[in-house]
């Protein structure tokens, strides 16, 4: 099970953000994507998710182009981007429970409370998500990761933003346990994060090369 970027290039308007990107992510690997603002980090994640099409090259899952295995790929992907994908009219705990059920991993209300508590949202668990701040909404989305171990590939856009020290430690441990169980993680972050990965990879889009 491998995620591969082969000769990827991305343009925005007439500007080329990056080109000739090659990287392979295997079970147990954590790939961190770095670069200055505007270098294309989120664009790279969207390409790897199949949400955008590259200007050149292709993304492959288990050696096959995403276009040939899209349904299978989507079933094995958890993507958390800037929009978070939470429902405003549901409470924080309901969002976590329903997302887990839809992913084929039913959990209880107490399970959701525990995951939200680990991310500092214990007092907001019963509130409609629509009244929460953007940072709190992000943490509601991140709470799903505690129950997403059956989904092998996690692609996360700035998951550690707006988290306090305790929440960063909790999320790092959740991601590390996923990696130890042969999951794969691709993420962006401006913070230095220690993860227990089989291989810790880094791609610098400013250099279009490994860090």
Write up this protein.
The chain is of the alpha/beta class. The chain has a domain at 1-76 and 154-162 and 182-211: P-loop containing nucleotide triphosphate hydrolases (Rossmann fold, 3-Layer(aba) Sandwich). 29% of the residues lie in helices and 27% in strands. The protein has six helices and ten strands, in the order βββαββαβαααβαβββ. The chain has helices at 41-49, 70-75, 92-102, 109-118, 134-143, 165-180, and strands at residues 3-12, 15-25, 29-34, 56-61, 64-65, 77-80, 153-157, 184-188, 199-204, 209-210. Strands 6-7-8-3-9-10 form a six-stranded mixed sheet, with helices on both faces. Strands 2-1-4-5 form a four-stranded antiparallel sheet, covered by helices on one side. Strand 4 (56-61) and strand 5 (64-65) form a beta hairpin. Helix 3 (92-102) packs across helix 4. The model has no long low-confidence stretch (mean pLDDT 93).
Q: What is the strand and helix layout of this fold?
A:
Elements: E1 3-12, E2 15-25, E3 29-34, H1 41-49, E4 56-61, E5 64-65, H2 70-75, E6 77-80, H3 92-102, H4 109-118, H5 134-143, E7 153-157, H6 165-180, E8 184-188, E9 199-204, E10 209-210
Parallel strand pairs: 3-8, 3-9, 6-7, 7-8
Antiparallel strand pairs: 1-2, 1-4, 4-5, 9-10
């Amino acid at each position: 099970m491998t995620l591969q970027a082969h000769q990827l290039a991305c343009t925005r308007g007439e500007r080329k953000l990056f080109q000739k990107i090659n990287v392979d992510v295997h079970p147990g690997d954590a790939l961190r994507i770095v670069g200055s603002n505007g270098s294309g980090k989120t664009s790279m994640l969207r390409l790897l998710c199949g949400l955008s099409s590259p200007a050149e090259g292709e993304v492959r899952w288990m050696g096959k182009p995403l276009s040939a295995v899209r349904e299978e790929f989507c079933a094995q992907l958890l993507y958390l981007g800037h929009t978070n994908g939470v429902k405003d009219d549901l409470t924080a705990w309901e969002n976590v429970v329903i997302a887990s059920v839809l992913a084929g991993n039913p959990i209880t209300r107490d399970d959701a409370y525990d995951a939200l508590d680990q991310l500092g949202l214990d007092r907001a668990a019963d509130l409609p998500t629509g009244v929460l701040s953007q940072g709190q909404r992000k943490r509601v989305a991140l709470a799903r990761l505690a129950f997403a171990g059956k989904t092998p590939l996690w692609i996360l856009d700035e998951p550690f933003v707006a988290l306090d020290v305790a929440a960063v430690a909790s999320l790092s441990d959740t991601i590390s346990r996923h990696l130890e169980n042969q999951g794969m993680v691709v993420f962006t972050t401006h913070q230095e994060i220690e993860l227990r990965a089989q291989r810790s990879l880094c791609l610098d889009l400013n250099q279009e090369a490994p860090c």
